[in-house]
Amino acid sequence: MLDITTPATPKWIKSVSALYGENVATFGKIAAITDYSKIRFYDVTNPAAPVGMGLTGSFKVGNEGFAIDGNYAYIPDGDSLRIFNISNLASPAQVGKIKTGGYGFVAVVSGKYAYVAAEGAGLRVIEVSNPAGPQEAGYYDGVPRARGVAVVGAFAYVAELADGLTIYRNDLATAVAERENSLPQQFALQQNYPNPFNPNTAIRFDLTKPSFVTLEVKNVLGQTVATLVNAYKTAGSHVVDFDASQLVSGVYWYRLKAGGVQQTRKMLLMR
Fold first, then answer.
1. Which phi and psi angles does 102 have, rounded to 5°?
2. Which CATH class is domain 183-269?
């Protein structure tokens, strides 16, 4: 890790143990690095003292590139994109998976879409508004040996082994100005769905500005039984999956705190 406060004179501040590192991704206070067929996560609240957290299970192949957005990591693994919930950094859990049709080299996330550069299948665009149920929204495989991708607004910039740099206009994406206009107008914690539930339910919340967010589940005694989010989140709407398979039936409360305000709602686990 380098301090680049002054880009002309970057300063080394910390190194972690040697890994077979092929790529790195960050989001807020989270950093992660590939260790060939696994991803290692770190809490970098203090960049000078990163704290090692969780580790994914082994993938089928080595990982050349991945992305982190909010509480989710988007990781190509051979011919699939695997999505992990990392709200608990100590225990990353896979929640979604979709075939991409080719060997995925790199994934990036912009808005509600993940973009995968897949050799043998070109650029694949995956809608991930529900990370547990990713759906392919579009693709372009005219020159299929895609190796890298970056996305800015409605344009995707793809590095193709056989043809150099190709720029695609993505009509699925919304222009930056339109996205800003569509941001939530107020801070809100929505009712979970389904409710009652058994054992999984989705919790949505809306942020009018980027904030550090805490989303906790409490029992009727006021004891915290799960922390679903404890991370920096961008402005917009967010959905979190809650797995209550380890809890007993009954009433639970979930509380959202962000930007100095909070809201609480009730839900019912019924087995």
1. -155, 175
2. mainly beta
Residues of the chain by 3-state class (helix, strand, coil), percent to 5: 0, 55, 45
Closest to 154 (Cα-Cα) out of 167, 166, 169: 169
* Three-point CA angle 35, 239, 152, nearest 5°: 65
Can you list the alpha helix ranges (DSSP code H) found in 78-214? 176-181
Q: Are strands 164-169 and 155-160 parallel, antiparallel or unpaired?
A: antiparallel
Q: For the chain, what are the domain ranges?
A: 2-177, 183-269
Question: pLDDT tens-digit profile of 60-115?
Answer: 887 888 999 989 999 999 889 999 999 999 999 999 999 988 888 899 998 889 99
Q: Which CATH superfamily is domain 2-177 in?
A: YVTN repeat-like/Quinoprotein amine dehydrogenase (2.130.10.10)
CA 173 to CA 155: how far, in whole Å?
8
DSSP state of 4: -
